[in-house]
Amino acid sequence: MPKATRIHEYGGPEVLKFEEIVLGDPGPGEVRVRHTAIGVNYADTYLRRGQWPTTLPTGIGSEAAGIVEAVGAKVSSVRKGDAVVYMFPVPGAYAEQRVLPAAALVRLPKGVSDAQAAAVLLKGLTCWYLLRETYRVKRGDVVLLQAAAGGVGLIASQWARALGAKVIGVVGSAAKAKLAQRFGCHQVLIGLDDLPARVHKLTKGHGVDVVYDGVGKDSFTASLDSLRPRGLMVSYGAASGPTPEFSAMELAKRGSLFFTRAGGGDYLADAKARAKGTRELFALLKARKIRVHIGQRYPLADAVRAHQDLESRKTSGSSLLIP
After folding, report:
1. CB proximity list for 305: less than 8 A, separation 6 or greater
2. CATH number listed for the domain at residues 3-108+293-322
3. Is the Cβ–Cβ distance between 293 and 319 less than 8 Å?
């Protein structure tokens, strides 16, 4: 029987259990995929901790690449043997095999490996809606990226640079600073202490046009204070905890700022939007304007360690589970 990592209760990484599952044949419109590489995302920890409540027990994980092993009735978009990748909102990607709708699958284009695809699809589509929809980055913009050496950060820095923006990254160590600079950041700042002053010095007192912040509580004030008047702060994650509650006057007194909490559930709910974002992402990959950095690979059975490393900020770039 195939195995999968599942949770029966909410809590720390120790609640992740690697166990046998019952997997039926694909029904109409469905396929069975044998996974070869599985993406690990910080959002997976929100589900595990109970921040995104669901019915228990449950699988975990939203993206993976693999090979189509069986095809149900009324499926014409893929065939047995096709190499595919997917992101799917119903958790369950941390598994050796999975049955899911054929409509969720994207066939891998030539030149994109299964590991690259699993490491980049969800993070890349996150970057797509952040840079192309939430705030449409254009040539000459100055962008500040918190956690610039993370999975989203390394992709976003390259994408923003390809769009003609000047990219300032924020990281937590000298080693991560070197990595962020290799992957698109024009300038990299280490730590949050006096960050707004350092940003304003780099921008000659102007501030940045937009901040992309997936850190949350710890970086919230520093991000706001780094913006130019009428700049936009885009919050898209909360690795250090949720952003604090604040009054609208905090935006007004800093120069009529804008603030939004962007979520993939809204920007990527439409199939046409996902297809558009995927096309743009794969085009940049094939043109080598975006390189994928896989910083960590773990056996599928070792998801506990993957989550421990992710939450202790020991990781850089993308992390994969390998069945």
Report:
1. 13, 298
2. 3.90.180.10
3. no
Per-residue burial over 277-288, b = 16 or more CB atoms within 10 Å of its CB, e = otherwise: bbebbbebbeee
d(CA 209, CA 229): 8
Residue in this structure with the two tokens 């369950």, named with its chain if needed: 92
Structure tokens belonging to residue 167: 């990219």
Q: Structure tokens of 124?
A: 């890349």
Q: Which amino acid is at 18?
A: F
Lookup result for tokens 């609640």: 15
Q: Is the pLDDT of residue 111 over 90?
A: no
Cβ atoms of 154 and 182 closer than 8 Å: no
142 has which bridge partners? 166
pLDDT confidence of residue 114: 94
How many Å apart are CA 252 and CA 254, to the nearest integer?
5
pLDDT band at 17 (very low <50, low <70, confident <90, very high): very high
Residue 92 pLDDT level (bands cut at 50, 70, 90): very high
Choose among 102, 86, 101: nearest CA to 39. 86
In terms of residues, how long is the chain?
Answer: 323
Confirm if 281 and 125 have CB atoms less than 8 A apart: yes
Distance CA 158, CA 155 (A): 5
The residue ranges of every structural domain in the chain are: 3-108+293-322, 126-263
* Omega of the bond leading into 196 within 30 degrees of 0 (cis): no
Long-range CB contacts (within 8 A, 24+) of 313-316: 313/172, 313/239, 315/150, 315/151, 316/149, 316/150, 316/154, 316/175, 316/176, 316/179
The Cα–Cα gap between 267 and 272 comes to: 11
CATH class of residue range 126-263:
alpha beta
Residue pair 205/182 in contact by the 8 Å Cβ criterion: no
Most confident range (mean pLDDT) of 156-165, 274-283, 307-316 is 156-165
Q: Residue 191's closest CA among 255, 246, 159, 147? A: 147
